[in-house]
């Protein structure tokens, strides 16, 4: 993958990059600047977001494919869940199979999110409800949960930052 990737779990390594986040699997952590991957490691997809209100919005989103993120930290074959956390602590934990068609987006309809929204990154995936598509991403964890584990234990699904529309 092209772009800026730093070893370590300190997002401050990329403090001047508003499109940075940390990805981890097991003990391995990497800081990634999504926008610097725009030179060939990104995709543009159309997603329709279904909000909790019932409203639907369709847009073209550009970002790093989840499948590429799995390679950044050499995700083990046993990876079962994809946990995404926002900078305000909101977090979801979804089966990795549900996230595979997703992206960590930094553009919507050709415009940088950080220039049109109060956040710079958003997680999107086709089979995940709109209220669970995390805005303001800070961290992504790849988890290998046992079959009897409750993925809800890894979530913090309170309303995210009210500035995030």
Automatic annotation (TrEMBL):
<dbReference type="InterPro" id="IPR036374">
    <property type="entry name" value="OxRdtase_Mopterin-bd_sf"/>
</dbReference>
<protein>
    <submittedName>
        <fullName>Sulfite oxidase-like oxidoreductase</fullName>
    </submittedName>
</protein>
<feature type="domain" description="Oxidoreductase molybdopterin-binding">
    <location>
        <begin position="47"/>
        <end position="144"/>
    </location>
</feature>
<dbReference type="Pfam" id="PF00174">
    <property type="entry name" value="Oxidored_molyb"/>
</dbReference>
<dbReference type="InterPro" id="IPR000572">
    <property type="entry name" value="OxRdtase_Mopterin-bd_dom"/>
</dbReference>
